[in-house]
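Our working data are protein records whose layout never changes between entries. Getting from the letters to the tokens is the skill we practise here. To make this concrete, we reproduce a full record directly below:
***
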Amino acid sequence: MARNFPAQEEVAADASQLKALLIALGRQRSLRDPLASTCEQMQFTPPQLHTLLWLGEDGALTMGELARRLGVTEKTVTGVVDRLEREAYVQRERDTADRRVVRCRLTDRGAQTYAELDSHLQEKLQRMLGLLDPADRTQLFTILQKLGTRLAELLQLAPCPAAEPAEDGGAEP
């Protein structure tokens, strides 16, 4: 089903307002990227950290899949994986069904690091969401799901999954 999207001029003022809000939030380092301080503490670059997160979330991925998730070229992701492999966080392995395909997966050390990163991210997000009341959090999730679904339609991707509400109705810190 095709959706009609508003003309660009209809949302130009809103886009300017959103840009200003995102810039203002970006100036507050703790809100810009909940993992920024983690990169520094663990001595990972952002692409290395995001590689660990994607592999932890999705399991073994080809270099092409990983590059698309990171939004970088395969050449760039190869360098990222090379360093993580030297440090024993990831391992490359041949696909059993097609020996031409090489997949990258977390090692035990990488899985342990992913668990620490995931816990750290959860903590930071809880702190951030704790700034909002439950109704605002619900509204935020609804808007993000709608945006994700509509972007997927526009780009012909899989829709954004619905968020599962917390058992207590909100994510209290």
Q: What stands out?
A: The chain has two domains: 30-130, 132-168. The longest strand covers residues 90-94. The chain is about 65% helix and 5% strand.
